[in-house]
Amino acid sequence: MEALQLRLQTTTQEFQKLQADLSASVEARQRLDAQLTENEAVKKEFDILTPDNVVYKLVGPVLVKEEQDEAKSNVGKRLEFIKSEIKRVEGQLKEIGVKTEKKKVELVELQTTIQQQQQPQPPGITA
């Protein structure tokens, strides 16, 4: 019985860690979504620039002039990176979801086994 209790405790801790990992991955996915939206808005603004427009980049507290082509290229690379990170995080979310579901089933099985062992057994019929 003690072995089952210990296994239940360990499995519960593993389940809680998976839930924390899932939560962290969801937060990372949300941050990436925000970055994606922001960078797509910048790209749209760049698309309407004329060659005469000047682009500035914020470096610390100072605005520094930057070439349009370089700025557009940087935003494009950033968008590619963010999209690849989103795919990676979505893969993590899927993997963690599967592991969490398996742990949940394992927990239910352990709890059921423990409850069955704790119930008093009916007296046997003797012949």
UniProtKB/TrEMBL annotation:
Domain of life, per lineage: Eukaryota
A GO MF term: protein-folding chaperone binding
Cited Pfam families: Prefoldin_2
SUPFAM superfamilies documented for this protein: Prefoldin (SSF46579)
InterPro entries in UniProt: PFD_beta-like, Prefoldin
UniProt-listed GO biological process terms: chaperone-mediated protein complex assembly; protein folding
Transmembrane segments: none
GO CC list: cytoplasm; prefoldin complex
Keywords from the named record: Chaperone
Family that this chain belongs to: Belongs to the prefoldin subunit beta family.
Name of the molecule in the record: Prefoldin subunit 6
Organism: Jaapia argillacea MUCL 33604
